[in-house]
Amino acid sequence: MLRPALSQLARRHFNRFRRSSMISSDSVQVTLGGLQVSVLIATFIYAISCFQAFLYWRSRFNDRLPLRILVWVVWLFETAHTTCFWIYIFTITVKYYGQPEEIDRRHWSLDASLAFHGLINCCVQSYYSWRVYVISGRMLIPILCWISLTLECFGAITDAVILYAIGPVAFTANWNLLPTLLITVDLSVGVVNTTSLCYYLYTRKTGVKS
């Protein structure tokens, strides 16, 4: 749940850095520092997810094959997502050091990270929606969540393609609504899944009639 929030934070710092490149060097330093800190924290969380994946592999749970495949697919997406962010940070802060105007140019690594973020969230939240169905025996909430996640996944890929095609300047000016909608769907599905799981687990534990 933390990685999507950090990804959104990193993208907000990216937009601030792009605007601040035309304002002052002090603003650039502050916003770029925020972007670097966000990526460092996200990398730390990625390291934790790697450790969890290792423990899962070592424990050899008797889970069904689709679930085991899902674990490793999510880990691969997480690896690609984190790698893209580090490539972008290296490009801006090392390869083009001292050239703030570079932020206005398209970079495939940043664009690809948006697509991987959508894929990660779709996989993880789809599994939680499945757990809601298993616990509750009701399909309405999971179906609504799966539809929303499918739209978010395709929306994230579309977001990445458009950003790469037209560049960050035109994207920020004309396509701000799309990432806003994606973030809204992302958070909404997370809240619905979390609330539903808490409710159904509570009613099953206490014997309260649902």
TrEMBL record:
This is Integral membrane protein. Keywords: Membrane, Transmembrane, Transmembrane helix. It comes from Gymnopus androsaceus JB14. The chain crosses the membrane at residues 35-57, 69-88, 108-128, 140-166, 178-202.
